[in-house]
């Protein structure tokens, strides 16, 4: 199988104010939805199938004839959709995998533990080093192909998606940061391409590499960030967008069972 990877464009704080993707623009055009119903969850799985299975040809998830991509970790995850109001399209999604305090799931751990050898972690950085109730993993971030393909000659409701496509990815990571904090799962892990982690750092999210690189859907390594430090250290130019995203999600999270 040939592995192809997409690195979503990331907007740095220096050029953020030069775009129309301000907090007001975000509220006018986008809604973040924590997937609570079966339909909302199916929409997230369908978008993941479009990106990871159809477009990237990744060999991940459980086989399904329903054109959805999901796995056993979705049962104890928070799923978030980024919905575009004008077109009715879910243009992005991300999930936060939580560790269930039950013995069975605690032993299984985070998704990255399914395929990443424990001995490759730097000392005292393995997820098991932290209390299980404070650990999570950000994964399955996907941006709809429509949002990544521009056509400058055509004016349409899609224009507000394509005005700042880089900020779609950034807004999903900010949404993940907010959900993690609201859930008090402060110790955050993610499997990232090293170059993507550098782009996130340029946007104010400083993930630290805590293990060696392996070949899993491309070259990836485990990264760690403390959500409390990340939130406090966000660049001033990004904080208004982050607070807008956090407010959208805060209203939904009390209605959401962290482990459903």
Automatic annotation (TrEMBL):
Q: Which Pfam families match?
A: Acetyltransf_5
| Cited InterPro entries | Acyl_CoA_acyltransferase, PEP-CTERM/exosrtase_acylTfrase
**Endpoints of the signal sequence:** none
Q: Which domain of life is it from?
A: Bacteria
What NCBIfam families does the annotation carry?
exosort_acyl
What is this protein identified as? PEP-CTERM/exosortase system-associated acyltransferase
Protein source organism:
Vreelandella lutescens
Starting at the broadest rank, the lineage of the source organism is:
Bacteria, Pseudomonadati, Pseudomonadota, Gammaproteobacteria, Oceanospirillales
